Amino acid sequence: MLRWALCACCLLAVSSALPYGLEVGETGVAFTPNGADAPLIKSLRYAAKDEKGVAFETTSATLTEGGEITFALSGPAAAEATVSAKLTRLRRGFRLDWSIKYTGPAREWNVWSSGFSHEFGGTVRDARTQPVTKWVKPTGEHEWEVPGDTLYPDTECQLREVFFDDAVLVMVADAYDPDWIYGNNLKRTPFARCVPPKERPSEKTYSITYLVTTADDLAPASLAAEAAGRPGALSVATDRVGNLFEPGEPIAFECRVSNCTDEPQALTYSLVAHDYAGKVLLQQTDTVELDPGAGTTLRHSLGPQPRGIIFLDAKLSWPGGEKISRTTLGILPDREPGGVRPDSPFGMAAIIANPGAYPDHFDKPTVLGQMQRIGVRWIRGGWFPLKKDVTAEDEKRVRETVDLLNAHGILPHVQLGAGVPKPEELDAFKQKVATCVERFKWVSPYIEIGNELNYSAKPAEYVTGMLQPIHEIMREVHPEGKVMTMGFGGVGQSWLNGFVAAGGMELSDVLSVHPGCHPRAPEFWEGWRGWVFRPQMLDACKAAREHGVREVWITEAYAPTAPSRSQVDLRTSADYLVRNYVCSIGLGVRVNEWYQFQDGVWFGQRQRPGDIEYNFGIVYADLTPKPAYIAYATMTQQLEGARYQGRIDLGDDELYGVRFLRDGEPVDVLWSYREKHETDLGWWPPEKFKDDSRRPGEPWQERWSEPVSIEFAAGAPVTITDIMGNAREVAPENATVTLQLTGSPVYVQGLEQTGLLPRFWQDIP
User: Fold this and answer.
1) Separation CA 34–CA 92 (nearest Å)
2) What percentage of residues in the chain have a pLDDT greater than 70?
3) Does pLDDT of 447 surpass 50?
4) What's the pLDDT at 4?
5) What is the mean pLDDT of residues 490-498?
6) Measuring CA to CA, which residue among 400, 399, 344 is closest to residue 372?
7) Which whole number is the average pLDDT over 754-764?
8) What is the CATH T-level fold of the domain 233-331, as seen in this structure?
9) DSSP state at residue 506
10) Residue 18: is its pLDDT beyond 60?
11) Is 496 helix (H, G, I), strand (E, B) or coil?
12) pLDDT for position 358
């Protein structure tokens, strides 16, 4: 199945004339498609509801010659509100740009029941939904943007497709609602949430477009283009989920150019492709002449490519405007599952794959397949329910999920959501824990309950009110299991000391931590113990070592790529991922679970650039790769099964050489921290930092420009592998090789034995 990854379109001049069969009157708005015998939408109304019920709702409607629809209102707040909509005619339907104004006293609006209600004229047979991504060139329009930075993805609209017997109604909403058909519940299709403005007086705007089409004419780019009133659409697609190819395999893709108007169009499209090193692999421009509503597919090939990532930009141009979009292609070997590897430190902290609840999600086999390909061996998740009464159906679902994980060579680490129970809730909490652990102890030895409770509870409250009862239950019903602390949200020294003093270490088999540090590098240290990886991990590992806790897990580590001046760029994120893992292993961390695999959050797999929570993935929301995805695959290929030996003494704390043994042969990971990313430099004054944090801009441009030359002893040629997985040989001269270290780690085989430091990092007083 082709998955369309890009769209680019333009503005259409519109008429105030109405489409055939649109009625504005007593029922609000009704719509009958051309040639239909009965309305497809019999009625469209809006209602605003608060805790008491309907505050105001639309009744009849009136249309002006200029295309303005005004609505009569009823309800106790009707005199304090106005509702209107601007009507725009489109080729296959119409667009309504709503304005909802409220001037009355403050109300607590019901966010679940305020919105638009449709009365459909036919029976709904099916429904689907998906977000459509647009790519934005930062101009400084948003305060967090750096002008001139690379393109970033955003959600343009949400397609809500409703299938009837002989037609498909596509409602294209500019507001994304992950709950529109939650649980694939078709009864939810007639309702579109829209909450009135909270401030007063204020105005809420909301746009929704209604297009009638058929089941074989649902190209997302064209639907989004027509909804926005743009004359053309350009999509780029491969036949691979995630656009993943094998090294040396020809890379084929298709461009679909469509005319979204009732007039002939001459549209110009251009393509340019860069590899990770900045080489231009393709540059092409063509003009396509299309009849009204027509489209054409153009096929392209890049030819065989080495490992890495390709950035493919597509541009659609027309007189007076253009639109640019991007997709990425990944080139890396596929991997057979090869069985689970409990000794592996390579994990993921979350998975977004729940189409049963959120239909626009990818399914678990698809997402797990992409994790398997890069060597993920652990996933944190709520793999069984925490509840009093466990059913046979619950157990069936859990077994199916665990079998699916194991089939992909992945082990589950159980993390169950819960807060510290109040005293009166403790007995019920203990009963739920005992029941579920007893029933599901076969799932995993590693069980963690709660998450980042150090933000809401004092150490003694957590230890006595939650960890102690969990410890007692685990020892009784699952003695071979591992009691994990909840993941500390940052390792604050004061909270950690309180946890130790309360006896928390004696109750724990595993110390689970989230050493927050973004956007700082993992090596960063300037004497402050706060939101910095190095001191947090040294404190955590020291406490575990001194109190007999044998395992330390990082259950959330990250380097998010939000397009903000306060975050890191795509290349740096890939470098930090590898550096974070290598530093963690050097400190003795048992497992490091990266947060997270996909952009998005658990309920919304989409792009949202202004919210950092949606930007932690090593792949985009459509599963196409970021550089960190390829870097993760290279790292696991180089280091899985390797044993940490020590940190090579390079005579400078900011130069890193970390030695591993794999199959009896050394593999060294080398990099320099002398050259800092801008977010590791002083953030004051703000004017200095403002537009200086996203260099060099494009992700195919090398950002490290200050390499450090180091000589190493070598009696034979050495092999150097970069983070994309491409290897080259360097021959020694006079029994030495000179390597150039930058902020991007390299894996080197063939260096001779050298001196190792006694500790990866020395403890901080």
Assistant:
1) 9
2) 97
3) yes
4) 28
5) 96
6) 344
7) 93
8) Immunoglobulin-like (2.60.40)
9) G
10) no
11) helix
12) 97
Answer whether residue 488 shows pLDDT above 90.
yes
Task: Render 681-747 in DSSP notation, one character per residue.
Answer: S---SHHHHHTSSSTT-STTS------EEEEEE-SS-EEEE-TTS-EEEE--BTTEEEEEE-SS-EE
Residue where the block lists tokens 């040639």: 35
Question: What is the percent of the chain with per-residue pLDDT over 90, rounded to a whole number?
Answer: 86
SS3 content of the chain, % helix, strand, coil (to 5): 20, 35, 45
d(CA 485, CA 512): 5
Checking if the pLDDT of 120 tops 70, the result is yes
What is the model's pLDDT at position 320?
80
CB 482 within 8 A of CB 509: yes
- What is the edge-to-edge ordering of all strands in the sheet holding 643-647? 643-647, 655-662, 665-672, 746-749, 718-721, 727-730
CA distances from 224 to 227, 232, 325, 393 (A): 5, 10, 14, 40
For 579, the 3-state DSSP assignment is: helix
Which tens digits make up the pLDDT trace of 703-739? 999 999 999 999 999 999 999 999 999 999 999 999 9
What is the average per-residue pLDDT within 636-643? Answer: 97
Q: For residue 187, which of 130, 126, 131 has the smallest C-alpha distance?
A: 126
Confidence (pLDDT) at 20 = 61
pLDDT tens digits for 534-544? Answer: 999 999 999 99
DSSP 283-317: EEEEEEEE-TT-EEEEEEE-----SEEEEEEEEEE
What is the rounded CA–CA span in Å between residue 585 and residue 757?
A: 15
* Of residues 563, 606, 559, the one with CA closest to residue 698: 563
Residue appearing with tokens 């209102």: 73
Cα-flanking dihedrals φ and ψ of residue 616, to 5°? Answer: -90, -5
What secondary structure does DSSP assign to 420-431, as a single string? PPPGGGHHHHHH
Rounded distance between C-alpha atoms, residue 543 and residue 552, angstroms: 10
Strand-pair partners of 376: none
Q: How far is the C-alpha of 212 from the C-alpha of 161, rounded, in Å?
A: 10
Q: 167-209, pLDDT tens digit by residue?
A: 999 999 999 999 999 999 999 999 999 999 887 778 999 999 9
Q: Is the peptide bond before 707 cis (omega within 30 degrees of 0)?
A: no
pTM of the model: 0.95
Tokens, residue 654 = 């900011």
Domain ranges of the chain: 3-211, 233-331, 346-640, 662-673+708-741+743-749
What CATH number matches the domain at 346-640, 3.40.50.1240, 3.20.20.80, 2.60.40.10, 3.40.630.30?
A: 3.20.20.80
User: Rounded to an integer, what distance in angstroms lies between the CA atom of residue 400 and that of residue 443?
Assistant: 11
Determine the Cα–Cα distance for residues 223 and 162; give it in Å rounded to an integer. 14
The single residue listed with the structure tokens 């058909």 is 181
How would DSSP label each residue in 68-134?
Answer: EEEEEEESTTGGGEEEEEEEEEETTEEEEEEEEEE-SS---B-TTT-EEEEEESS---EEEEEEEEE
Neighbours of 68 (CB within 10 A): 14
- Angstrom distance (rounded) from CA 259 to CA 253: 20
Q: How many CA atoms lie within 13 A of 678 on its CB side?
A: 19
CA–CA distance, 303 with 331 (Å, rounded to integer): 12
Please check whether the two domains, 233-331 and 346-640, share a CATH topology. no
Query: Mean of the per-residue pLDDT values for the chain?
Result: 93
* Mean of pLDDT values over 387-415: 96
Q: In terms of Cα–Cα distance, which of 625, 557, 623 is closest to 596?
A: 557
Residue 689 confidence (pLDDT): 66
Kindly state the tokens that stand for 303: 């030819």
Q: How far apart are CA 629 and CA 308, in angstroms?
A: 10
